[in-house]
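User: Hello, can you help with two protein structures?

Assistant: Certainly.
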Amino acid sequence: MKKQGFDTKAIHAGLEKFSPDSMSVPIYQSVAYPYADAKEAAAIFTGEKPGYTYGRWDNPTVAVFEKRLAALENTESAIATASGMSAIFLLTHHLLSPGDAVVSSNRVYGGTFGLFETGLKKMGSQVHWVTAPDDISAWAAAITPKTKFLFVETPSNPALFVADIPALAALAKKHHLPLVVDNTIATPALQSPIDLGASVVVHSTTKYICGNGSSLGGIICGSRELVEGIRQSSIRYLGPAMSPFHAWLNLLGLETLGLRMERHCLNAMVVARFLEKHPRVETVNYPGLDSNPYRKLMGTNKMKGFSSLMSFVIKGNYADAVKFIDALKVLTHATHLGTCRSIVTHPASTTHSAMGETEMRKAGISPAMVRFSIGLEDKEDLIADIERALG
């Protein structure tokens, strides 16, 4: 049978034969599953017979979502979690022991930075930050015998760093290490890290995969051995499972992901080009622009687009950035991204404030930086709103 396309898999992959059948995946809002007898219960728990054990470990609705996203990310398996951060935490907890280390780009989401910088210390592990992530030799220099995996968020939030995934994957393979890619911003609709040599993909499904800001969620996509190792151990005693209802909402989002990402990219390019020419804007960080140094990696990473996230620096200071944000009417001021609605955020005072001034500066985040997540509104309305707010 011919390999199915992305949009077909986004609608059909992972479907079970439910009884009665349904156009929408049923929501199994249950924490437990009755067994015919003690023998069946024992067989299901040992894996000798297919079945479900307990809501924190598995669920029919969640299982469809896991299978569908694994299919879209071209991995053997996947495990859904309560949030994007819980996915990264579970993976880190599974791969690291006290004394071990992770090597990571410092261009990461503020929550990821906090987990690696502060959380790992409490678990007896550590992070080696790569502050020049464009330089593959900087990654190589950070690897030690204690390193257990490489981690990169690409494109990154909010500075829009784009990694050379094949080069990082080759480095990881040379040192017999897994490369973990946070694919939240690009989504599998625009980028396939596994096809480029990565070992594991993580997502905050809260963003583009859900697509409307209604549902928290995360997922780890990787080998069957990795996923089942997590399912049989840490998710059982740590407990950050995705709920059936949130899995259902994310499944609805997946059905239109390909179409939405096309529109996100189209609208974002229009806005980025407008900002680049505006006299009140100092710099624009959007990899899709011809002037952006990461534009060349579109071919290297086989990307179909650079998503909707962008950041730019207003000429002035913090007060100028805030004045602009408060003047917007169509764009929503919120600490979120990846929804149908366009969103504006001030990273230095919200999503990345916990990093502190020094670390924010290293990561390219200034007080005058503004972040946009461009949605699906009419592009003419977005430009008019931004132009009026800039004055």
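That covers the first. Now for the second protein you mentioned:
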Amino acid sequence: MINQSYKEMLSGKSIIRELSEYATARGKEIGYENVFDYSLGNPSVSCPSEYTQSVIDMYKSSNPMEIHGYSPSLGIEDVRIQVAASLNQRFGMHYEGKHIFMAIGAAGALAHAFRAVTEPGDEIVVFAPYFPEYYEYIRRTGAIMKVVAADTDTFQINFNEFEKVINEKTMAVLINTPNNPSGIVYSEETIKKLSQFLLEKEKEYGHDIFLISDEPYREIVFDNKACPYPSKYYHNTLSCYSFSKSLSLPGERIGYVAINPECTDADILAVIMGQISRGIGHNCPASTSQLAVAQVLDKTSDLGVYEENMNIIYDALIEMGFTVVRPGGTFYIFPKALEDDANIFCMKAKKYDLILVPADNFGCPGYFRMAYCIDTEKVKRSIPVFKKFVYEEYLCQNKNVK
């Protein structure tokens, strides 16, 4: 008999994927250049040429067994050492290779981190708005996801609501900064306050509370600022990273968990994650990807286009009368819809071939997400279409729309 819980998931497909598939199909009808697809967070800039060249060089001259054979369960040792050294240099940490677990992207990193620090029935707290797949990631571990309502004025952590949600069953807290979908970067003040809050709760409950930090957008930060590194502020932190966004390598599926050397059982957590791999089959990331990213750890793709796109869209949204908090990073923006039901709002937008994602599944009904990782030329062409949509559908109902 087919597993019924997975069968039931077919009726609740990812809205992001559904809209992306619709946009692709619509593009076949009218030309994809005429579909303004803001659905999928797929990087739109090329990976660094150094990455490509390192792969070419490996395939020409390296031992085939080294690049095509299984990697160790915890990752290639020299790559782990190099990742640790890079993090130490960038963030003033003191990782060793034993504190790095190589994973199949950020999703693989999270899959191991969740299981390493929770038992079935334990609770993991997340903050709205959040990436919708967190629900399934967490549920499939046997843990329970608890959601803290958003502070929609800033999209920083809502500590008043956090106090209502956290309890003695809380074993982990999951943050995502820079954030998908809001684009907000948690401030140093927020991270410090979170650290102090968790330290107090650890004492109150008499057990560890791990901070799991989902960081795939860490390098995409605007206004010449930097994203605070949560591990510097809280001892029990597991940093989950992917090279998908910084190096534009989502198809390579390569990332890692960095285990704060000061956290509980820091010296064996990576080994435990290796054992977790035996249970979920999510092990041995591609050797080629590990070896190649090790050559470009301190490089990024040309990420400036995302800030350019953000400024164009943000300014246009403000001009049109939208309520929106200016993103501090990522390639997402998260406006409030012009009517209470963002699903209806986004359905109306589809008539203009504007593909926008309603945010009910992100924990923020009434908002929508735009993934602006598309060509700047296309962003600019979309603005008149967006204004036409707003004018024709909402001008009479909303006197603030210009």
